[in-house]
Amino acid sequence: MKFKLFILFFTFSIVRILATGQQPDRIIINNKEYNLLNTPLERYFKDHPDDHPIYGSKSIRKKDGKEETIFIGSTSNYRGYIATFKIENNTLSVIDIKIQNVNSEEHEYISVFKKTLGDRKIDLNYSGILVIPIGRMLKAADFGYASLYDKYHLLTIQQDNVVKEKELNKDDFMRFKVRQFVDYKKTEDYKTEVKNYFKDWNTSKEWDLLRKNTRRMSKKEIARLKKQYECPPDEDYIDNYLFVVLNLDFVITDY
After folding, report:
1. pLDDT tens digit string along 150-199?
2. Is 252 part of any domain?
């Protein structure tokens, strides 16, 4: 499986499939700003939903007596915001959050950090491995953060504190990603993702084969569609899919 995943990661980086590339968060280290191939705030917002700049209580405004969410959707930014982090004194902190301006024709990003978080100190309680591309891009991928670079800077964070960091070339980085996925397969999160995958697959099968959705199709087209759903996906197929689309920063693996 390791070899299959290693090859597939490289292949997916070349063929550019699945979904739209995502606008990255930013991180400042030693006064230099980098792209960040993780989203550390997502787990924080899961525990503190009212602080979310799009869906939280402070992002709601009144219009004609009704509440409406201020949000501009974008396939290149599913989370709806861009956060900026900083490493200072070996500690990770968030220093800015921006969303698109709904009152601007250009829809440029504006800071909502003060509005959503105020002046209070935010403890992210983040533990995971941050991935920062520091080399040149070798292959661009139009989905997630799967573009391939020739060098990466990795930081292991425990409760917002940097406990390890190291630079990796692309080959060492790929080997690290495979080891990380192997560790992920031992978790309950993996079992949940597999269950959800099968649930979504069965839902898609039922929907696609409904009479109302096939009545305009030819017998040949219907037969082809049924053949696609003849056998459920096997473990290798699901693993390859999850390997590419999931952000496994919370799986702390040695590198």
Report:
1. 999 999 999 999 999 999 999 999 999 999 999 999 999 999 999 999 99
2. no
* pLDDT value at residue 14: 39
CA proximity to 35, closest of 22, 46, 50, 17: 22
Any domain includes 255: no
For every residue of 119-167, DSSP letters joined together read TSPP-----EEEEEE-S-EEE--SSBT--EESEEEEEEEETTEEEEEEE
Residue in 48, 68, 27 with CA at minimum distance from that of residue 117: 48
pTM beyond 0.85, yes or no: no
In a domain, 126, yes or no: yes
Does any domain span residue 253?
A: no
Range of the domain at 142: 2-245
Q: Which residues contact 132 (CB under 8 A, 6 or more apart)?
A: 27, 29, 34, 35, 36, 37, 152, 153, 154, 155
Residues of the chain with pLDDT under 70: 1-22, 58-75, 140-146
Total tally of structural domains belonging to the chain: 1
Neighbours of 220 (CB within 10 A): 8
